[in-house]
């Protein structure tokens, strides 16, 4: 992705040469203050929400002492014991897993294919893919909702429909990331393998795919984390209580009668996606060894 | 390269085989749904159930639903018009808000974060991994009548009664949109600003440009692509957003296009209207979408 | 949310996007293909076979013209005396918080030997639920509709006729509901609960007795409450309220003059008080998140359970016209054809009509079941409701004096929807 180049440029060297003009090299106090202010504004509300998931009382704004009540201690209202919350959690993770398993192989193959097949048809496919990349989510969600309810699709609203919608919306991630990686790898490795007698498929599988591993893991993490976050598609394509995700749960209850258990669910999702990001980062580092500098955690996350 | 013909052909066949599943998937689950929306918006309404009867065949397309929507854009019956205007105003304000926040932050991270760049970048990216709904929930908690903000305001004696932030206040909705989407703007901007070589800035300095001059004549022009990308990436989802509004306002007085679509879809008799509204959204967004897709295809060609 | 969806520069695309290519892809999957596989609509049979009377219409039931709905061929009631399904998951489709989890548990316990498990799915309004049910493939066994949906669902064969042999408890309910005008011979439905539509508030947060106003509905237009009140997220309720406020009595009208006035009034209301549109009043009022809300009687009785600790139930208030000239209604239970467990579904209906079970349900949902054994004049005395909520009691006589939302004619329906969309658009 363009967001962060694989090799980050060196930080600006502190220039101390004696000219009267200090210009942009003066410590940017204002900019630093804006950035710090932004970070606080952006993260403090979330940290407070996390904090209140540990509140011992029912309030989400008055601190009444630390407790794990909303996670497991409360016999009816905690995440552990409220079946609908637990179900939402597991369903969200299931969707994340299924979507990743379908979208990533499909997208990687698509990217490799576009790399090899040139012409109008693949160009149109590429164009369509890019369009699916930028189209407002509600358009796709409404379209799929009507398609599934009006046409004799072999599946109805529910988990399958949700996975189909999510895969469609997420497909572009692996494609774009893998194509970027292919661009930096270049054709020479594959050519060399072919010269040494490998078949087209063999060269791709034994030479190219291993080199693509970091990109594949990065896109898997992105897809998974983005699915955990999805709301519009999963809501339009849900059917019943079994197919509600945590985001639907939050949306339905945020203005109703939420207890800190809702904050607890959201916190667990947050932990889940950070764990996945961390695992992905470790995997990228591992598979990336011996190749180009995989970049810092920031650079990795920046590949969003 | 001068590979032999059969080798190239085999490589080509492999390419076709690899491309087709993804292309077929997009055709069936992306293009067909779009066509269904067109069929619905050009269809008729079942007289008994008042549910939609899609016009699958383009020969049967009828303009009733569009006529209905268009006839209600302006004039005495014009209740869609104000929503469109409101949507545009909110999105413009929110995008401007994002820009004001994102540019300095991106510039700071790209230029001045020094050794802490990794950390700052990770913190800036963190919102991507936090569910959007949770971030909104956090604000619902804070802005509630008995929330922290009201308690601070009340405690400081600034307000006598709690401020009803969460009922139909455009400011809350616009700020909510800024909060929700600004991370999506910072990254492309950061990427663009990061690409500007420090040598260029030094050169500008050596040629006698001042601080402001350097920014205006070097940094600003070079960051335009990143800024444009950021604008599009934020404006597109915002225009279709309805949940931010639902969570932070829940009042018709701040309803946006996304809310209208959402309400219409829930109602079988208004499916045609929903379809028409979705298409209007697509048409309104066509220019930025195509601009974006074209620019990425063009950068393909360039490199 | 999608993250930064920005594609990477790509050196391999040798060609710009081809418009023709895109069209080609679209054509590949285009109209002809779609036309061939349109899903069988429940409506299509009806539309085609609408009879000799020109354009087909649905009969609209009303107290003056009771209706016995047809039973479609192939949609016969199940046989009597069947054994309940084993290890089944009984799916209920209901409003949020509209059934007591305890009565579900007691049902599971009662039929423990069958291994039944009950799951509740929820909807926000009946448009949404109807859309999902009509979409086909919905797995729900028991649905809790309002009576204006019976016609559509029965005509489309989406609802299963009842086998009365499983439901002896029908004798427990008010006689007017054992052979109701909306479903003669109770072929498809049994009554669930009754309610009126009025205004709810907390006396410690509102410094006036809204019921004492000359026209209590005016409160929604009173700017002093701007940002602090809500109307129900239900087009029939809100538009009907505006009609009644303006002195009308026909809440099923298609009269342009009346609806035109409603539009003006609702626009004026939105401007004056920016009301929220929600059905969470039963929580928001007791918690103090809202001060005044258009409310269903049952929601205000249920509100007792959502008061913050230390707040006495005596602060809750509900107003409904003392002469009974307001909106009055009842909800129903029915068994959907798509459900997989018809026998258990029948047993569940019977369970909820049991005297004890219905009362237990009442204490949670706050909506009053039409039980013979429940004396409406004694609800306050028996502790179901505090004095301030006495007006939330539903009397059998209300069903004579009050106004009922009937199924609208298609033409009127269109106008009502138009009015509602305009209101929801904030224009």
List the main descriptive attributes of the protein structure presented here.
heterotrimer, A: 304 residues, mainly alpha, MetI-like fold, 2 domains, 13 helices, globular, B: 303 residues
Plain-language structure description:
The complex is a heterotrimer of chains A (304), B (303) and C (427). With 304 residues, chain A is mainly α. Chain A has two domains: 27-67, no CATH class; 83-301, Orthogonal Bundle (MetI-like fold), CATH 1.10.3720. Helices cover 67% and strands 0% of the residues of chain A. Chain A contains 13 helices and no strands. Chain A has helices at 29-52, 69-73, 83-116, 120-134, 137-150, 159-170, 172-185, 188-195, 200-229, 232-236, 246-253, 260-288, 297-301. The longest helix of chain A has 34 residues, at 83-116. Chain B is mainly α and 303 residues long. Chain B is 74% helix and 1% strand. Chain B has helices at residues 5-41, 64-71, 80-112, 117-129, 132-143, 148-155, 170-195, 198-206, 211-240, 243-248, 257-265, 271-302; strands at 44-45, 52-53. Chain B has a two-stranded antiparallel ribbon with strand order 1-2. In chain B, helix 1 (5-41) runs antiparallel to helix 12, helix 3 runs parallel beside helix 7 and helix 4 packs across helix 7. Chain B is globular. With 427 residues, chain C is of the alpha/beta class. Chain C has two domains: 89-194 and 330-383, D-Maltodextrin-Binding Protein, domain 2, CATH 3.40.190; 195-327 and 404-424, D-Maltodextrin-Binding Protein, domain 2 (3-Layer(aba) Sandwich). Chain C is built from 14 helices and ten strands. Chain C has helices spanning 19-28, 31-36, 42-48, 101-110, 126-134, 150-155, 235-245, 256-273, 281-287, 297-303, 342-352, 355-365, 398-401, 410-424; strands at 89-95, 117-123, 142-143, 159-160, 189-202, 229-231, 276-277, 292-296, 316-319, 327-336. In chain C, strands 1, 2, 3, 4, 5, 6, 7, 8, 9 and 10 form a ten-stranded mixed β-sheet that branches. Chain C is globular. Chain C starts with 18 loop residues before the first helix and ends with a helix. Chains A and B meet through helix 1, helix 3, helix 4, helix 5 and helix 6 of A and helix 1, helix 3, helix 4, helix 5 and helix 7 of B.
């Amino acid at each position: 992705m363009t967001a962060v180049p694989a090799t980050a440029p060196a930080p600006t060297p502190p220039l101390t040469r004696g000219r009267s003009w200090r210009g942009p090299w003066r410590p940017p106090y204002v900019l630093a203050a804006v950035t710090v202010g932004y970070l606080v504004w952006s993260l403090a509300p979330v940290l407070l929400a996390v904090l209140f998931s540990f509140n011992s009382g029912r309030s989400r704004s008055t601190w009444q002492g630390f407790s794990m009540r909303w996670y497991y201690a409360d016999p009816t209202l905690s995440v552990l014991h409220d079946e609908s919350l637990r179900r939402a959690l597991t369903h969200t993770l299931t969707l994340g897993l299924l979507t990743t398993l379908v979208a990533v192989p499909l997208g990687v193959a698509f990217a490799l294919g576009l790399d090899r097949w040139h012409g109008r048809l693949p160009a149109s496919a590429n164009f369509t893919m890019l369009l699916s990349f930028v189209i407002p989510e509600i358009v796709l969600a409404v379209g799929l909702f009507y398609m599934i309810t009006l046409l004799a699709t072999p599946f109805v609203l529910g988990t399958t429909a949700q996975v189909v919608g999510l895969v469609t919306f997420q497909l572009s991630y692996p494609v774009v990331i893998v194509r970027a990686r292919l661009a930096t790898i270049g054709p020479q490795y594959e050519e060399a393998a072919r010269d040494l007698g490998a078949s087209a498929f063999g060269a791709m599988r034994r030479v190219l795919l291993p080199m693509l591993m970091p990109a594949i893991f990065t896109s898997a993490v992105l897809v998974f984390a983005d699915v955990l976050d999805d709301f519009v598609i999963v809501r339009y394509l849900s059917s019943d209580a079994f197919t509600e995700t945590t985001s639907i749960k939050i949306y339905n209850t945020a203005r109703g009668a939420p207890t800190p258990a809702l904050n607890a669910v959201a916190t667990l999702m947050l932990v889940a996606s950070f764990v996945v990001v961390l695992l992905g980062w470790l995997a990228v580092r591992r598979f990336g060894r011996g190749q180009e500098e995989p970049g810092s955690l920031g650079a990795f996350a920046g590949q969003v | 390269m001068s590979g032999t013909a059969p080798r190239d052909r085999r490589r080509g066949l492999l390419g076709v085989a690899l491309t087709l599943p993804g292309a077929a998937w997009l055709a069936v689950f992306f293009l067909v749904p779009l066509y269904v929306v067109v069929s619905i918006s050009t269809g008729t309404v079942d007289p008994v159930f008042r549910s939609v009867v899609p016009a699958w065949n383009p020969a049967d397309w009828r303009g009733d639903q569009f006529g209905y929507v268009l006839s209600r854009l302006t004039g005495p019956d014009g209740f869609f018009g104000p929503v469109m205007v409101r949507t545009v105003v909110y999105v413009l304000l929110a995008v401007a808000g994002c820009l004001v926040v994102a540019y300095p932050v991106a510039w700071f991270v790209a230029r001045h974060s020094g050794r802490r760049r990794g950390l700052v970048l990770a913190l800036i990216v963190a919102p991507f991994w936090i569910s959007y709904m949770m971030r909104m929930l956090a604000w619902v908690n804070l802005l509630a009548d008995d929330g922290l903000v009201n308690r601070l305001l009340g405690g400081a004696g600034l307000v006598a009664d709690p401020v009803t932030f969460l009922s139909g206040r455009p400011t809350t909705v616009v700020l909510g949109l800024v909060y929700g989407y600004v991370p999506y703007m910072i990254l492309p901007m950061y990427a663009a600003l990061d690409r500007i070589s420090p040598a260029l800035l030094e050169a500008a300095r050596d040629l006698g440009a001042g601080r402001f001059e350097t920014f205006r004549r070097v940094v600003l022009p070079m960051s335009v692509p990143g800024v444009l990308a950021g604008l599009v990436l934020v404006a597109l989802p915002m225009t279709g957003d309805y949940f931010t509004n639902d969570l932070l306002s829940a009042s018709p007085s701040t309803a946006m296009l996304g809310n209208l679509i959402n309400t219409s879809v829930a109602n079988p008799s208004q499916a045609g209207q929903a379809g028409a509204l979705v298409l209007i959204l697509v048409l309104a967004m066509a220019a930025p979408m195509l601009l974006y897709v074209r620019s990425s295809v063009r950068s393909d060609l360039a490199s | 949310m999608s993250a930064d969806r920005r594609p990477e520069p790509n050196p391999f695309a040798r060609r710009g996007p081809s418009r023709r290519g895109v069209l080609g892809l679209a054509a590949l999957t285009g109209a002809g293909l779609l036309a061939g596989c349109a899903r069988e609509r429940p409506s299509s049979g009806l539309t085609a076979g609408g009879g000799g009377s020109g354009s087909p219409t649905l009969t609209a039931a009303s107290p003056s013209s009771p209706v016995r709905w047809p039973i479609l061929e192939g949609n016969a009631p199940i046989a009597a005396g069947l054994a309940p399904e084993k290890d089944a998951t009984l799916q209920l489709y209901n409003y949020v918080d509209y059934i007591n989890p305890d009565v579900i548990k007691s049902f599971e316990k009662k039929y423990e030997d069958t291994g039944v498990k009950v799951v509740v799915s929820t909807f926000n309004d009946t448009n949404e639920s109807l859309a999902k049910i009509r979409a086909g493939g919905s797995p729900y066994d028991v649905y809790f509709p309002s009576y204006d949906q019976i016609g559509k669902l029965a005509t489309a064969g989406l609802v299963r006729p009842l086998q009365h042999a499983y439901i002896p408890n029908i004798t427990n309910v008010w006689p007017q509901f054992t052979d109701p005008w909306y479903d003669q011979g109770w072929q498809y439905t049994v009554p669930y609960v009754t309610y009126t539509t009025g205004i709810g508030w907390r006396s410690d947060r509102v410094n006036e007795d809204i019921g004492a106003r000359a026209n209590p509905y005016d409160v929604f237009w009173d700017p002093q409450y701007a940002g602090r009140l809500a109307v129900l997220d239900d087009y029939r309720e809100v538009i009907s309220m505006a009609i009644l406020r303006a002195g009308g009595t026909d809440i099923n009208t298609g009269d342009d003059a009346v609806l035109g006035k409603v539009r003006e009034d609702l626009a004026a209301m939105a401007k004056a008080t920016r009301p929220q549109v929600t059905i969470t009043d039963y929580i928001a009022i007791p918690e103090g998140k809202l001060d005044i809300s258009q409310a269903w009687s049952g929601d205000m009785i249920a509100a007792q359970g959502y008061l913050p600790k230390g707040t006495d139930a005596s602060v809750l208030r509900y107003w409904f016209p003392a002469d009974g000239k307001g909106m009055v209604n009842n909800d129903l239970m029915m068994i959907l054809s798509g459900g997989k467990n018809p026998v258990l579904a029948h047993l569940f209906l019977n369970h909820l009509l049991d005297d004890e079970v219905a009362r237990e349900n009442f204490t949670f949902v706050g909506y009053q079941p039409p039980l013979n054994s429940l004396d409406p004049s004694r609800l306050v005395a028996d502790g179901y409701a505090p004095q301030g909520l006495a007006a939330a009691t539903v009397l059998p006589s209300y069903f004579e004096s009050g106004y009922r939302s009937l199924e609208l004619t298609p033409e009127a329906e269109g106008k009502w929807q138009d009015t509602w969309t305009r209101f929801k658009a904030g224009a």
